[in-house]
Amino acid sequence: MGSLGFQFSQLGFPQIPKPQINSTMGCSTLRISCGLRKGYKKPMYRARVLSTETIQAVQSLKLAKSPSKLDEVFSTRISRLLKADLLDTLTELQRQNELDLALKVFEFLRREIWYKPNADLFSDMMRMMGKNKLVDNVEELFYELKKEGLQPDARAYAELIGAYFQVEKIDKAMDTYELMKNSGCNPNELTLTILIRNLESFGEEELAATVKKDCVEYLDSPEKFLKEVESKFPKRKPINHV
Predict the structure, then answer these.
(1) Phi then psi for 93, rounded to 5 degrees?
(2) Chain-centre distance of CA 72, in angstroms?
(3) Could you say which DSSP state residue 48 is in?
(4) In this model, does residue 6 exceed pLDDT 50?
(5) Cα–Cα distance between 133 and 130 in angstroms, integer?
(6) What is the pTM of this model?
(7) How far apart are CA 64 and CA 92, in angstroms?
(8) Per residue in 83-94, pLDDT tens?
(9) DSSP characters for 108-176?
(10) Cα angle for residues 189, 193, 197 (degrees, 5° grid)
């Protein structure tokens, strides 16, 4: 099994900085946040109310300000969590955008005896990294997923495509879309929505039109879907990139 490890340098990961907001970017930084993700059926551990153990674990991790303190938290608290509580701890760290801590917990649970490769776990991490424009990390997670014997599903491809759009790598987003189709993984509504709305926001009307034509092949009700996309995400004027 591949290992992301606690030290990012082991995989060539750059040390993850805290996300910085550039107030000078203005409207050119607009990206489409697709609400269709909320429609995905989550694993059963996602709908739980956080236990006291989970809340305390998250607080202890955030209060550990040195490597030695962090090691102590993992050995005395994280290692004692039940499976469901450990998964909830990871989910809560992702929700709070605690990048370093989430990666450490993600690696920790992958070493647990009960762990089995799970595409949703990888996709959740990919989404977190993509939102923070850490596309190299998203790519690494995508390939780690495959190293664990999993075939990327529609959501994994969607997260990788979305990450490329976050850093304006349109060509790579489209290459990934083609790879997805060629691999036999059919694009779903989430993937198609991310492609259409981001391509239109970049002024790539021809590419967006091509994706819309694909809807006929991959969706049962393409016309209804496109009308819903247009209704939920009104077309904006193309972004003027300098």
Answers:
(1) -65, -40
(2) 29
(3) P
(4) no
(5) 5
(6) 0.77
(7) 17
(8) 999 999 999 999
(9) HHTTSTT----HHHHHHHHHHHHHTT-HHHHHHHHHHHHHTTPPP-HHHHHHHHHHHHHTT-HHHHHHH
(10) 170
